[in-house]
Automatic annotation (TrEMBL):
<comment type="pathway">
    <text>Protein modification; protein ubiquitination.</text>
</comment>
<dbReference type="InterPro" id="IPR011333">
    <property type="entry name" value="SKP1/BTB/POZ_sf"/>
</dbReference>
<comment type="similarity">
    <text>Belongs to the SKP1 family.</text>
</comment>
<dbReference type="GO" id="GO:0009867">
    <property type="term" value="P:jasmonic acid mediated signaling pathway"/>
</dbReference>
<dbReference type="InterPro" id="IPR016897">
    <property type="entry name" value="SKP1"/>
</dbReference>
<dbReference type="Pfam" id="PF03931">
    <property type="entry name" value="Skp1_POZ"/>
</dbReference>
<dbReference type="GO" id="GO:0016567">
    <property type="term" value="P:protein ubiquitination"/>
</dbReference>
<feature type="domain" description="SKP1 component POZ">
    <location>
        <begin position="10"/>
        <end position="69"/>
    </location>
</feature>
<keyword id="KW-0833">Ubl conjugation pathway</keyword>
<dbReference type="InterPro" id="IPR036296">
    <property type="entry name" value="SKP1-like_dim_sf"/>
</dbReference>
<dbReference type="Pfam" id="PF01466">
    <property type="entry name" value="Skp1"/>
</dbReference>
<dbReference type="GO" id="GO:0005634">
    <property type="term" value="C:nucleus"/>
</dbReference>
<feature type="domain" description="SKP1 component dimerisation">
    <location>
        <begin position="118"/>
        <end position="153"/>
    </location>
</feature>
<dbReference type="GO" id="GO:0097602">
    <property type="term" value="F:cullin family protein binding"/>
</dbReference>
<dbReference type="InterPro" id="IPR016072">
    <property type="entry name" value="Skp1_comp_dimer"/>
</dbReference>
<comment type="function">
    <text>Involved in ubiquitination and subsequent proteasomal degradation of target proteins. Together with CUL1, RBX1 and a F-box protein, it forms a SCF E3 ubiquitin ligase complex. The functional specificity of this complex depends on the type of F-box protein. In the SCF complex, it serves as an adapter that links the F-box protein to CUL1.</text>
</comment>
<comment type="subunit">
    <text>Part of a SCF (SKP1-cullin-F-box) protein ligase complex.</text>
</comment>
């Protein structure tokens, strides 16, 4: 595993499917259950390859994990009042974070699923579900790239 100590913060090296390397704090990286398990079981390689995640999506995932890690850390340090502030901070961030095109949203969902980041899976699934629930059958077919095989009775 590739780790570097910097001012008491352990750094983890991740490499995207297109070969871009990212150095992230361990507290950010372990928001992914997949990466957390690799580190805890000493099976992480140097650097940790993420073959199903491109660099532009990994950058977004890291941004998401950083904000959530910071909010959790601040809430733990400053107590209950800060916990409410952190929840509002996260809610606002999540709302802005999801303002992406449909393709990016699906890529984020796939990355969150592959990296096992439960909060991001839930967030992106809810966004996709809310997006789809207002569509007609025809719109769903176009969006999901499926053929309409509905036979009226």
């Amino acid at each position: 595993m590739s780790t570097v100590e910097t001012a008491t913060k352990k750094m983890i090296t991740l490499i995207s499917s297109d070969g871009v390397t990212f150095e992230v704090e361990e507290s950010v990286a372990v928001q992914s259950e997949t990466i957390k398990n690799m580190i805890e079981n000493n099976i992480a390689v140097t650097p940790i390859p993420l073959p199903n995640v491109t660099s532009n999506i990994l950058l977004k995932v890291i941004e998401y994990c950083k904000h959530h890690a910071e909010a959790a850390s601040n809430a733990a340090v400053y107590g209950a009042v800060s916990h409410k502030v952190a929840e509002e901070y996260v809610r606002r961030f999540d709302t802005e974070f999801l303002k992406v095109d449909q393709s990016t949203l699906i890529d984020l969902l796939n990355a969150a699923y592959n990296l096992n980041i439960k909060s991001l899976v839930e967030l992106t699934c809810n966004k996709v579900a809310n997006m789809l629930k207002w569509m007609s059958i025809e719109q769903l077919g176009c969006t999901l790239n499926t053929e309409n095989d509905f036979i009226p009775e």
